[in-house]
Amino acid sequence: MTRFIIRRLISIPLLLLGIVSIAFLISHNTQGDPLASIVSERQMDNPEVVAAAKARWGLDKSLPEQYVLYLRNLITGDLGTSFRTKQGVGKDILERLPATLELVIAAMILGVGSGIVLGVLAARFRNKPIDHAARLWALTGSSTPVFWSGLILLYIFSVVLGWLPGPGRLDPRSVPPEFMTGFLTIDTLLAGDFAAFGDALHHLILPALVLGWTVMGIVSRLVRGSMLDVLSQDYIVAARARGAGELRVLLNHALRNALVPTLTIIGFTFAYLITGAVLTETIFSWPGIGSYAVEAARNLDYPAIIGVTIVGGTAFLLSNLATDIAYAFADPRIRLS
Predict the structure, then answer these.
(1) Do the beta carbons of residue 221 and residue 261 sit within 8 Å?
(2) Which of 139, 155, 217, 313 could be joined to 19 by an S-S link, Cβ 3.0–4.6 Å?
(3) How big is the chain by its Cα radius of gyration, in Å?
(4) Domain for residue 214, yes or no?
(5) How far is residue 157's CA from residue 159's CA, in Å, rounded to a whole number?
(6) DSSP summary character for residue 179
(7) Which range of residues forms the domain containing residue 130?
(8) What percent of the chain has pLDDT over 70?
(9) The total number of structural domains that make up the chain
């Protein structure tokens, strides 16, 4: 186990180098001029201003020179300076990453928790009304576009019913707490501001529900399929023959083995949502990595685009490592090599 983890950790920088190289080449070979986001439209016809801007941001160098310079700075932890915000990309990401993580963690808790429950119920009551209802709900969640479900739920629960607040992380009239973790639900509790905590929690529910609905649909269908396969095994029949209760059979014997195939999709989904929650963050004006990536792409902000790519690549690599380790704990028969 230790040797496996060490080998995987050593391979992560090499894989990230490949990811960074591909992102660098693709972003620098797209049509468009990044100077449009650096120099005002009025100054674009001034050759002296344009030349100074290119020299300031290294755009006057050849592509190989820019690549080598970027890697040299990256080794020291410098992700470059954003063309749009005019501050370090690393600082931008650190400011926005907690908002995305808070949303993703809440969505995963809702999606995975409800998905496992629905999957177990659907398998236990196969081809009965509970099974049909669970499968319909899961299919709807996994096939409904996020931009559609987000807008519809926002209109129903915020505009029509008024049960939940609109976009944003806090009410515009609320004073944000001092930045400690970046998680507003945690920072408000640490500050002892329970009114702000309730406000932050209410703002979190709807986007987490929209994002978690997709996760729930995928997880519940996988759990149902795995549970149906496991429940037909001989050891389940033997456990029932020994007089084990149905709840014990489902949770202790069947569910643990059924969750092993599901671990892969859970780990992959968590990594995907970190940079894939673009539409949800855009609809709900959530200031996270997704909305930052959208603005970077609109302005051809090369350093910001590559910075977000590094975050996403790291998330996928670490989640795959965590999934492999979780496999070993979930099923002792699995041997890592």
Answers:
(1) no
(2) 313
(3) 24
(4) yes
(5) 6
(6) P
(7) 108-175+206-287+307-336
(8) 88
(9) 1
Q: How far is C-alpha 187 from the geometric centre of its chain's CA atoms? A: 21
**CATH code of the domain containing 235:** 1.10.3720.10
- Tokens 């993703």 locate to 104
Distance in angstroms (rounded) separating the CA atoms of residues 151 and 172: 20
pLDDT category at 261 given cuts 50, 70, 90 is confident
Three-state SS for 81?
A: strand
Q: In this structure, how many other beta carbons lie within 10 angstroms of the beta carbon of residue 235?
A: 12
Amino acid at the residue 218: I
Separation in Å, CA 63 to CA 19, 22, 59, 277, 306: 17, 13, 9, 31, 15
pLDDT at 149: 86
Which has more confidence, 212 or 271? 212
Count Cβ atoms below 10 Å from residue 35 Cβ, excluding itself.
17
Q: CA–CA distance from 144 to each of 110, 151, 156 (Å)?
A: 17, 12, 16
Write out the two tokens for 294: 């959208």
Residues constituting the chain: 337
Is there a domain that residue 297 lies in?
A: no
pLDDT in the model for residue 102: 92
Instruction: Report d(CA 161, CA 60) in Å as an integer.
Output: 56
> CA 112, CA 218: separation in Å to the nearest integer?
9
Start-to-end CA span in the chain (Å): 8
- 322-325: Cβ within 8 A, 24+ apart: 322/267, 323/263, 323/264, 323/266, 323/267, 323/268, 324/4, 324/8, 325/1, 325/5
Amino acid at 169: R
The span from the CA of 148 to the CA of 156, in Å, is 12
pLDDT at 215: 86
- Within a domain: 273: yes
Give me the amino acid identity at 20: V
Q: Tell me the average pLDDT of the chain.
A: 81
Give the whole-angstrom CA distance, residue 226 versus residue 257: 8
Q: Tokens for 29, please give them.
A: 């070979």
